[in-house]
Amino acid sequence: MKGILFTFALLSPIIGGLIYGLERKFKARMQNRQGPPILQPFYDFFKLTDKRALQVHSFHSLMGIAFFVAAWFAVFALLIGPNILIAIFLHVLALLFFTAGGFSVKSPYSVMGALRELAHILAAEPILVFAAIALYLSTGSWNIEGILTSNTVPILQMPLLFCALVLTVPILLKRSPFDISEAHQEIIGGAEIEYSGLFYEAVYTAKWLEYIFIGVIVFLFGGSNYLLGALLVAATFLFVWLLDNATTRLTIHYMMKFAWGILLPLAAFNIFWVAIWR
Amino acid sequence: MGKKFVVPFGSQHIAIPEPIRFIFTTENEIIKSVSVDFGYVHRGIEKACMTRYKYTQVPYVVARVCGLCAVSQATAYCMAIESLMDIEIPERAKYLRIIVHEMDRIHSHLFAIAHLSEAAGYENLFMRVMRDREFVMECLEILTGNRIQADYSTIGGVNRDLTKEVYEILKPRLDELERRLYELKEIFERDYTLQKKWKGIGVITLEMAQKYNAVGPVARASGLATDCRVEFEYLPYKELDYKMVLYQEGDVWARNMVRLDETLVSIRVLKNAIDNLPEGDIKVKVKGNPKGEALIRWEAPRGELLYYVKGNGKSVLERLRIKTPTFSVIPVMKELYYNQPYAFVPDITISFDPCLSCSAR
Amino acid sequence: MFKMFLFSLKNLFSKPATLPEGTEKPKQYRGLIKYYEETCIYCKKCEMVCPPGAIIFTYPEDGSKRLIFHYNPYLCIYCGECVRACPKPGTLVQVEDTAPPATAQDKPNDLWFEVEKEAVESKKIWQEARRKKRNK
């Protein structure tokens, strides 16, 4: 089991890239047009390594690389580490590296994007912590191997929390209606605007790793039933991509109100119900 | 009390493809002061029309002032010269001018609606509206030979005729387009996230519209009833059952709905015109040179267009002056930005449908 | 929101609306101009009427009436005024192709400036030759 998880974590940028390529093809088909080829993210990778990288200053470029390294480390910690809660905190650390890089430049778009990124972290991470607590409550272990070999199926005990998690995925992946920190038409890319060349490639690849991170957490809700886990992952991604094509972009205030006012009480209610019923 | 940021909404930006430059001073993402600058695409078209081109070649030059209102510019100029030299064009030419003019209006309004949806972050609706716009572009291509620069009006009439086979191709496409536009209207009226995004933002009251002299769909969305097609009788719109569209709210949503409803009215006028084309020729011969002055006010898709022509007996004009609709609407735009969050700036700017290549010819 | 949701789901299973490469243009699309020298009477009306000046006639040295026709497909705006102004129908015909894009090696601007200069100079030589022929 550990060997499979280790190879999966090692190959996670490539798998994440394929999922991103599939997303662009699906998104294009939903909009009634032909899309780019599925291997397009890898063509972008080769093109970006060819470009000359213009650096603003060395701290900014270091934060770009640190974002990628910390995100990959978080995926490793999730898959072969002892405790999935630590992996979630490492994921927050990776996003904080990115935000620090965004603040360190004098460009107004970069600073506004970094401010909005902090709002994203505040809105989305509590629900991930609640998801880890839910997995512990239903299967009795914090370890990923324990969850994957337990007898109970977590989603049957925690349906409301799973719904809250699925509605948080747009906030983590930065898709409509919550793509506020990289609002393409308002602040033109947010905190990633000053990167170029190889450092932009590092930030670009770190976003592919988000798919793996979220995919694994959703997969764990299927417990030892791997088929159910795969089905849940496919259904979640399809729902998020359909929702991306059916809504506009909302504001930060609405995102905070939605995440802390509706999603968090739903998740907390489910956890209290299961904990008390035990 | 936050720090003051200076954010440029510069002449090169992803949201608006127009070269206009705003410099906002924001505090906690609320705008406190604005400064506007435009004139980046000045090409000297008026001077060129006074020195280099003869008065019969000017419709082709003036059509290239703007891409989206090309037909309106050429038609307005031809009407100005015809009223100066007292030329009476045949009825069939007038109907054909209305047909192409309304097709131009439909495709320009659909482009504005799609652009506004894209700025709101709703890319799927943008692609859908552009797909529906392709029907009109095909009709224009079959009738005039090109999709946007139609080169259709000349002095004394129009250039190409509408034959029977063109009529057979146009009719099913227009019916299909009307059906799709009714579906689009339902989506724009009822979508939940669009209403959250657009209602109550960028409100222009009736007094503001009157004080700053707004024109076009911007004025009609605030309740100010001004439309050159109703006030002047150069082309027979009254026989073709044209009605003005008025909304009272004056926000971004109302401006969008005014454009969508005007598209539906245009299709109705278009269908009436195609079914009832009178017989006759399409052009009269023009001799001589213009002498005197003339002033025409006509309705481009974005508002009121003004042409002043002065000739003194030579084949090159003495003075040509164009006043474009976006130029009149910029003072209102500047007033609207105070005390709004920066996140609404692209929506407000694009809801005015600016066409900067007209403003700085 | 739900309507667009169902619309996206339906589009996932239908063909894309993109026109494939090599779709033909419709009939009577306005394109380039073709010149047939047999019926031309060298009245130069097309040169006077063309708005951007894409048609230029240069003059032969021997003073004969047969002028040489030059056409710049990159300046042409495909308006069709020359076709309408020509008194002999069939001399100028508008076809449906458009000009392929030019590269810097074709030197489109420099060659055309030379043609413009040659038109002015060759006209003087031609008028001299005609005056000599008349005085003979």
From TrEMBL, chain A:
A single GO CC term, please? plasma membrane
Q: Which UniProt keywords apply?
A: Membrane, Transmembrane, Transmembrane helix
Entry's InterPro entries? ComplexI_Subunit1 (IPR052561), NADH_UbQ_OxRdtase_su1/FPO (IPR001694)
Task: State where it is primarily located.
Answer: membrane
Annotated membrane-spanning segments are 6-23, 61-80, 86-105, 117-136, 156-173, 211-243, 258-277
The record's subcellular location field reads: Membrane
The record, for Pfam families, names:
NADHdh (PF00146)
How the protein sits in the membrane?
Multi-pass membrane protein
- Protein name, entry field: NADH-quinone oxidoreductase subunit H
> What organism does this protein naturally occur in?
Aquifex aeolicus
From TrEMBL, chain B:
Q: Does the keyword Metal-binding apply?
A: yes
- What residues does Mg(2+) bind to? 46, 322
Domain NADH-quinone oxidoreductase subunit D, residue spans: 123-285, 289-359
Q: Which SUPFAM superfamilies match?
A: HydB/Nqo4-like (SSF56762)
Keywords associated with the record: Iron, Magnesium, Metal-binding, Nickel, Oxidoreductase
- Enumerate the Pfam families for this protein: Complex1_49kDa, NiFeSe_Hases
Cofactor(s) required for function per UniProt: Fe cation; Ni(2+)
Q: Supply the name of the protein.
A: Proton-conducting membrane transporter
Source organism:
Aquifex aeolicus
Q: Where is the organism placed in the taxonomic lineage, from the top? A: Bacteria, Pseudomonadati, Aquificota, Aquificia, Aquificales
